[in-house]
Design brief:
Shape: elongated
Order of helices and strands: HHEEEHEEEEEEH
Distance between the termini: 22 Å
CATH topology: Porin
Helix content: 10-25%
Number of helices: 4
Number of domains: 1
Oligomer: single chain
Largest sheet: 8 strands, antiparallel, barrel
């Protein structure tokens, strides 16, 4: 049993390291899915769409972006799980931010009427407790979420001859802190008993000011529509491995 746990931890660490090495982390997860499932652990892909906003700027609108990662559900009791994993593609930010000076007279003139879409890319780790109600397939979840920023830029866009035919990217990594911490709560439904998909809704509330040098404090906010797809669970079941569902 101890050797098996060490193998699973080794595979988990390997997946995290592969994120920094290349872009094949999700493919690796798919290939190793059946090896990461047991009667106490469920592994799968977690993705969907996120509606994000920055609490701080006087004028900005909600933006949306896809998110994708992998998850582990550790069964603590029949109805209680520890949910964690890595969201390897997680974009925060907002759109509709007014254009501002870039310190270049020519650029400022060209982009004076542009709209700004702020894109903040994070490598996020959720740590939730997940509770399933009785014999139903409904569940609630809540807990902290830690993010590590890997990109940050403002995308200026304007229409000259055609829609959004003028664009410019301005790097703002030096103005945004690396780390973000917040709390997430949500609920969901398991479509089928056994190894069906999870459909959920989560809300993330950032609690630290991510701005380093901007005039206004910035706090990340995000509403996630999520789909959790177990990977390799069917193969594990054929080997007489069952989950708490």
């Amino acid at each position: 049993m101890e050797i098996e746990i060490k193998k699973k931890l080794f595979l988990t660490v390997t997946l995290c390291l592969l994120y920094h090495i290349g872009q094949g982390q999700v493919l690796i997860s798919l290939l190793l899915g059946d090896k990461l499932n047991s009667d106490k652990i469920e592994f799968g892909l977690d993705g969907g769409i996120a509606f994000t906003h920055l609490n701080g700027p006087n004028t900005s609108d909600m933006a949306h972006a896809l998110h994708l990662g992998f998850y582990f559900d550790f069964y603590l009791k029949e109805s209680l799980q520890l949910h964690t994993g890595v969201i390897v593609k997680s974009t925060m930010g907002a759109k509709g931010i007014p254009s501002y000076s870039l310190g270049d007279e020519e650029l400022d003139q060209m982009l004076s009427t542009a709209d700004v879409r702020r894109r903040l890319g994070y490598f996020s780790i959720p740590i939730f407790l997940k509770y399933r109600f009785g014999n139903s397939n409904f569940y609630v979840e809540a807990g902290p979420q830690i993010g590590w920023r890997n990109k940050a830029y403002d995308e200026f866009s304007d229409s000259i001859l055609e829609k959004n035919d003028l664009s410019y990217e301005h790097n703002i990594k030096g103005e945004i802190k690396r780390a973000d911490i917040g709390f997430t709560g949500g609920f969901g439904y398991r479509l089928m008993k056994g190894h069906g998909m999870n459909l959920g809704l989560r809300y993330y509330l950032g609690v630290i000011d991510i701005s380093k040098s901007m005039p206004d404090p910035l706090y990340n906010r995000s509403l996630y529509l999520t789909v959790g797809i177990p990977i390799g669970a069917g193969k594990a079941e054929k080997n007489n491995v069952t989950t708490a569902y």
